[in-house]
Specification:
This protein is mostly helical and 202 residues long. The protein is built from ten helices and no strands. The two termini are 25 Å apart.
């Protein structure tokens, strides 16, 4: 958890930042399972589903950014939101879901895991909570440097925003994130019986 979060904070490339943050998120899943409670297991499964959607969306947008600009290094970016507002907005939405902001699919997943871990092992729960805070710090910092401010090159000012086909695909990810975040019962009701059975067998 902590290694992935602090390593992500030290990166200067969006792809490497996403790779190290993935390590941190998988660590959170393992911690939820290790709590050996139904809430922890539900949170772990929810987080896995959230991780698949959010990480896929972020890596897809990063790939589209690389296709347009030829680089995902922070030093080559900056001011991207001016010429690519849709791409920047979706990247922010997916990042907020990765941070576990209320209203996104990341919130119920992280809440269940943190609740389960804090009630079963307070020290591990506090470490996980610290990781969530660090995760918010590195994402906001890299997003500000990569997407906000003045454009750093003419390639950025002339870049095209999301096309119709790209917008359709990214929009599907966004819908899944918002539906699962605003109506988490749509996921929890499906996995309730299996998680309860798993806990009972333990």
């Amino acid at each position: 958890l902590l290694y992935g979060a602090f390593a992500a904070m030290a990166q200067t490339n969006l792809r490497r930042m996403l790779a190290f943050s993935s390590i941190s998120h998988v660590g959170l899943v393992l911690l939820g399972i290790a709590a050996f409670t139904q809430q922890g297991l539900q949170g772990a499964i929810f987080q896995l589903l959230n991780f698949v959607v959010v990480s896929s969306g972020l890596f897809l947008l990063t790939g589209l950014l690389h296709h347009r600009l030829g680089s995902t290094d922070i030093i080559s970016l900056g001011g991207t939101a001016r010429s690519m507002p849709l791409l920047s907005a979706f990247f922010l939405l997916f990042g907020l879901a990765a941070m576990g902001i209320p209203g996104t699919s990341g919130f119920p997943a992280e809440f269940l895991i943190l609740y389960a871990v804090i009630t079963t092992h307070t020290g591990a729960g506090l470490a996980a909570l610290a990781t969530v805070i660090v995760g918010a710090a590195y994402f906001i910092t890299l997003y500000r440097r990569a997407f906000l401010g003045p454009a750093s090159s003419s390639a950025i000012t002339q870049a095209d925003d999301l096309q119709t086909r790209e917008l359709f695909i990214v929009g599907l990810f966004a819908i899944l994130i918002l539906v699962a975040g605003l109506y988490p019962a749509s996921v929890l009701n499906v996995i309730d019986a299996s998680t309860q059975g798993w806990i009972n067998r333990l």
